[in-house]
Amino acid sequence: MSVVSNSSPLIALAVIGSLDLLQALYGEIHIPEEVFTEVVIRGAGRPGASEVAGARWIVRHALVNRLVVAQLLDSGIDAGESEAIALATELSARLLILDERRGRTVARERNLLVTGTLGVLIAAKQARIVPAISPLLDGLLAAGVYLGPQLIESALQLAGEGSRS
Question: Which of 2, 53, 54, 115 could form a disulfide with 93 if both were Cys (CB 3.0 to 4.6 A apart)?
Answer without folding.
Answer: 2
